[in-house]
Write a structure and sequence with these properties.
Strand content: under 5%
Number of strands: 0
Distance between the termini: 20 Å
Radius of gyration: 23 Å
Low-confidence stretches: 71-75, 188-200, 213-219
Shape: globular
Mean pLDDT: 81
Length: 386
């Protein structure tokens, strides 16, 4: 009976998330139609409503759904880019979800991701360490940065949201200053070109590419980092649901007072929870930058990495379930990648972020959807009994 209830609850959660996706895509298509109409109308040429629908679908919506199978010479470069971005999205999603599960809101994943990238690049470019040690360094740096808001929350009851937001920017500008400040940073002399992060690495510092093709300007490598992220998601699910440690962390999230009464050290668990969340975000940065997927460019890195905030979207869409995060990260990456292949003369690439944003906004109503769908199941069961 309990197993059946769990299966039904899981099915209701999946159907609720799918409702958010379908409604969000429908609203996104309407937005694309409006943009297509404005484009046609501003051109001054005669058009019909069918032309507007055709533009919205074939030049926008279809390409978003295909996730970047449109490119130069129709080369399917989109899926490789999508897979490259999915790994860090899974990790930042797990970072936010882990904190959610323990009653905390880790809005500092962007800063932890940034500091984790610093740790990974420092070990890869300066120390020339193997990629797996660089990944460990990224986790340690991210964990230390995440533990600081946890410390203030545990011992001074300072809201972790406020502290984490401040440490996002401290981390970003601190990393840029240490690396390149005034031309005397530790990596300034390493930078030989725009692709310095690739050229300066020793082969041992690169996460192996799945295909062996390597990267180019148009094609990002699909590395084994994706499988590492999936494995970490599974391990996290086991920790949260099958271990005493995970139970203690969730108990603190439900009620710190009750956890303390039960003999659980709530202060230690708060700091550990934020440290683990920071480590997950740091690993995400390591998987991205050590896989030859991108370069950390200080001249344009005055904005916090989008992966940190997209992780919040991924966690919300998956209802903070570690295994569900794998699929929600893949979906968000799919939408974002496809948005870059729309007809730029009609649709700005940012429209993909609008569609994803609408879907995430609808996730705020996921409890409403769950109740409605659960009500349908209940009615069906009552009808069957009659």
């Amino acid at each position: 009976m309990m197993k059946n209830n769990r299966l039904r609850s899981g099915l209701i959660t999946i159907l609720s998330a799918l409702m958010c996706v379908v409604i969000g895509l429908a609203i996104g298509f309407l937005v694309l139609m409006v943009l297509a109409y404005v484009s046609r109308n501003s051109s001054g040429q005669p058009f019909t409503f069918a032309d507007v629908i055709n533009d919205a679908y074939t030049k926008g919506f279809q390409r978003v759904l295909l996730g970047g199978w449109y490119g130069i010479g129709r080369v399917p470069r989109g899926p490789r880019s999508q897979l490259a971005q999915t790994a860090p999205l899974i990790m930042t999603g797990l970072s936010v979800a882990f904190a959610f599960k323990t009653g905390l809101f880790n809005i500092g994943a962007a800063g932890q991701y940034t500091v984790g990238a610093f740790g990974a690049l420092l070990c890869a470019l300066v120390l020339k360490l193997p990629w797996y040690l660089c990944l460990v360094a990224a986790a340690i740096f991210g964990a230390l940065w995440g533990a600081i808001p946890g410390f203030f929350k545990a011992y001074f009851n300072v809201n972790e949201v406020i502290t984490a937001i401040m440490f996002n920017w401290i981390g970003l500008y601190g990393v840029n200053t240490i690396l390149y400040g005034g031309g005397t940073g530790v990596m300034f002399n390493v930078k030989a070109s725009k692709t310095w992060a690739i050229a300066a690495k020793s082969p041992a510092s690169l996460i192996p590419d799945l295909s062996g093709i390597g990267s180019s300007y148009f094609v990002r490598p699909a590395s084994i980092g994706l499988f590492i992220a999936i494995a970490i998601a599974f391990v996290l699910w086991v920790i949260l649901n099958k271990t005493t440690f995970g139970y203690e962390l969730k108990a603190c999230g439900y009620s710190k007072s009750a956890a303390k009464y039960a003999g659980i050290n709530e202060k230690k668990n708060i700091i550990l929870s934020m440290a683990i969340s920071g480590a997950l975000a740091g690993i995400g940065a390591g998987l991205y930058y050590l896989s030859d997927s991108a370069q950390w460019e200080p001249m344009v890195s005055t904005m916090l990495p989008a992966f940190g905030f997209d992780g919040i979207s991924v966690a919300l869409l998956a209802s903070s379930h570690p295994m569900g995060i794998i699929f929600s990260a893949l979906f968000i990456s799919h939408i974002s990648t496809g948005g870059g292949f729309m007809d730029a003369m009609i649709f700005p690439p940012e429209i993909a972020d609008v569609i994803a944003g609408v879907i995430i906004y609808l996730c705020a109503f996921i409890m409403l959807f769950r109740n409605k769908i659960g009500g349908l199941f209940t009615k069906k069961e009552k009808g069957g009994k009659k």
